[in-house]
Fold LacI family gluconate utilization system Gnt-I transcriptional repressor.
Amino acid sequence: MNRKPATAAAPSRAITKEDVARAAGVSHITVSRVINTPEKVAPATRERVEAFISSMGYIPNMLAGGLASRRTRIVAAIVPTISHSIFAETVRGLSEQLSLQGYQLLLGQTNYSEEAETGLVEAFIGRRVDGLVLTGVQHSVRTRQRLKAAGIPVVETWDLTAQPIDMLVGFDNHAAGHAMGQYLHRKGYRRMAFVGGEDPRGLARYAGMRAALLAQSAAEPVHLVMPMGSFLQAGREAICRLLALQPGIDAAFFSNDVLAAGAALECARRGIAVPQRIALAGFANLDIAPEVLPALTTVQISAHQIGLTAAEMLLTRFDGDAVTQTVCDLGYAILERDSA
Amino acid sequence: MNRKPATAAAPSRAITKEDVARAAGVSHITVSRVINTPEKVAPATRERVEAFISSMGYIPNMLAGGLASRRTRIVAAIVPTISHSIFAETVRGLSEQLSLQGYQLLLGQTNYSEEAETGLVEAFIGRRVDGLVLTGVQHSVRTRQRLKAAGIPVVETWDLTAQPIDMLVGFDNHAAGHAMGQYLHRKGYRRMAFVGGEDPRGLARYAGMRAALLAQSAAEPVHLVMPMGSFLQAGREAICRLLALQPGIDAAFFSNDVLAAGAALECARRGIAVPQRIALAGFANLDIAPEVLPALTTVQISAHQIGLTAAEMLLTRFDGDAVTQTVCDLGYAILERDSA
DNA sequence: TTGAAAGCGCTAACAC
DNA sequence: GTGTTAGCGCTTTCAA
């Protein structure tokens, strides 16, 4: 199946603005203008230069351009992992919106490690990205220092805080958890559990739910921490563990829909009536939420919109305009379906 | 919730190698060495310089470095969409492996448009990426020309071809479809359908399945094309359409597990016995495949490994070594479970 | 409307 | 072990 052993290619020398300029009989700056500000070039000259650009297959070196202009037209995004569809959606939104304006997206994954985030932030600053999108509002001191020193536009996402580094688009995780806690309590459930990971946002949702229950003098919810990984399987295991450890439990709020869907699947398999025996609630309103049986009651948020909005904020800044609304609260909504 | 209107920050002037050099009383080249080849610097000098780098918070400008050295340490990946977990897995593998060596990932999405791919390739060449990872083996002439002219290392993924642009890691989609066709036929199913999108790889799987059935003198499979979007829902709709249009149908092979899972969920909902009334087979062995009821028979491939391998190939090239195995066939395997 | 000069911050090649 | 000299390919500012 193999072909010739491939060695490093020999890029003789890439073609430059000078080459095009020489061929077209103008100076390189004119070529530059044809590309960046065509309206400032005489139509005749422009057409001739364009013809040469095209026939010679000239592609401007944006590295050199970026160095000279101090604008790279690159935005970096840092997410815990691209494997979780919520973050994938945010990244998709970002990338789509950014590419409309000729910006490119550099992607970094932290795997939920703050240390990794710090490293990525430094790497991206080193690449002189025009803007940075961070997940969450919790960052190392070093990250904050670097960001401040670099002075580049930053958008934090997926959460809310009173002291954003710069801009922010997200929703109140604590309030969302609180709302679900109230909802479940109102529905008559009294012995609840929260199932999730240990990321700050999941923890905030748990805290919100807990606060809601305590405010109603209801029992404190069981907090079951599951490892991040295959959420579906984790959800199945979680429901088994919950039922075994706390037979009296009557409702479970999961940190995301996939976890909840796994639980629903397991209940179906074991003939456990949902929501009669145990109610299930998810988070995010992912594709899977309405599809399992029973359809999942969940908290609706918009992962994709987070990416879109973050991109818009950044783009506004890049245009030199001031972003008046530096904090964008996208909100959330309890979506009642059949599982709780 | 708003704070001060945010305006473009004033990055007075980023600190450079010169600044550090002056402070440490050495020349800028020594600072450069401390960063890039510390072993070539006297320990005493090194430590002093390192102290200044750290205390001054110096972050090298990789744009300038890249321009001078002609190496950006950036790899670009182009996928149809990051929303489909198979591609997200590939991107995750790529990013993980690359970041181990200090490389960063630029991400582009085509939304299955060849034209978009062409544009992205040009943009990435303009950014002088060190390597490029493409999805599939079908590309515009222009893309091929540009890539050839640029002479940068390229890895095509997710398919196989006799004439790769450069390097290749994937598996034979036609053969995988063929194998599933044979499997289903062997299992006794005779009136089959294929459900998928119109991407080249899905089409190849359909063609393979069709060839297998025709070789057995079995009936030609029905080919149902579903729009890309919410796969779960598309899977549900597909099974409804199939059963309505072709009541005699006894097996359906879906272009991916999510589609198949949607169908399984709908069958469960409507009390349609799987695999007795209709057998269901998926593709990719995603997390969801073993979790639905009945567990999905599918074709196992490794999306994550594709990313890992592509990164390794590229990294080998970057090290100046020749990649002897330019084509890596990761293979596939029929995974028999309960649905077919 | 077009061009010349200067420099963005770094690395490569060669000297000392 | 360390420094000097030249660029890398582009944009910016100013001049014509």
Remarks:
- Chain B has three domains: 17-60, 69-171+303-330, 173-301.
